[in-house]
Amino acid sequence: MAKKVTPGPKPAPATPTKVPAAAGSTLPPSVTPAKVQTQSTLSPRSSPQEIIVHVWNKYVQDTPSRTILLDVFMAWLVVVGAVQFLYCILAGNYPFNAFLSGFSAAVGQFVLTASLRMQTSERPPADASLVAKKTTAKTIDGVTGEIIEDTRVSTERAFADFVFGSLILHGFCVNFIN
């Protein structure tokens, strides 16, 4: 005859233990320290470092990866424009048309990218239905009582406008060099 096995008490889940780290030592790759939990809100007496870390964590947590990619590209354009301006100050601006063309290309591309970011990273309200997210929003003007349609541009159309504007911008910049 088969024996009936009754389950015993469940074992307690294993809790991670903190590994004390000596000063100047590093943990081996097999040991991963527990992730530090950050506060969800800040107190009025928070230090500037806590505020910066909180803002950075919320940005990384809540921002879509496409928007972060646009932000990185915009930061790169700022660096390129700053290097060109610094070079113009330190080394001189003999081919002034070349400096103006390169600096204008960096600034113009930054503006076009900022426009693309604004058009593609808007989030509709959480309580809006799927149909309302894809169509136009209609509001009534409080003064005149007219219906105002707030049309939203699709992300594909915004990217096409970005590419078209970039081609025109760089076409002008290349022609301005000569």
TrEMBL record:
GO cellular component terms, A-Z: oligosaccharyltransferase complex
Ranges where the record places region Disordered: 1-43
InterPro entries: DAD/Ost2
GO terms, biological process: protein N-linked glycosylation
Major site of localization recorded for this protein: endoplasmic reticulum
Key words of the record: Endoplasmic reticulum, Membrane, Transmembrane, Transmembrane helix
Mode of membrane association: Multi-pass membrane protein
Entry keyword Endoplasmic reticulum: yes
TM ranges: 68-92, 98-116
Pathway, per record: Protein modification; protein glycosylation
Localization (cell): Endoplasmic reticulum membrane
Low complexity biased stretches: 15-24
Top-level division of the source organism's lineage: Eukaryota
Function field: Subunit of the oligosaccharyl transferase (OST) complex that catalyzes the initial transfer of a defined glycan (Glc(3)Man(9)GlcNAc(2) in eukaryotes) from the lipid carrier dolichol-pyrophosphate to an asparagine residue within an Asn-X-Ser/Thr consensus motif in nascent polypeptide chains, the first step in protein N-glycosylation. N-glycosylation occurs cotranslationally and the complex associates with the Sec61 complex at the channel-forming translocon complex that mediates protein translocation across the endoplasmic reticulum (ER). All subunits are required for a maximal enzyme activity.
Assembly description: Component of the oligosaccharyltransferase (OST) complex.
Entry's family note: Belongs to the DAD/OST2 family.
Record protein name field: Dolichyl-diphosphooligosaccharide--protein glycosyltransferase subunit OST2
Organism for this UniProt entry: Exophiala mesophila
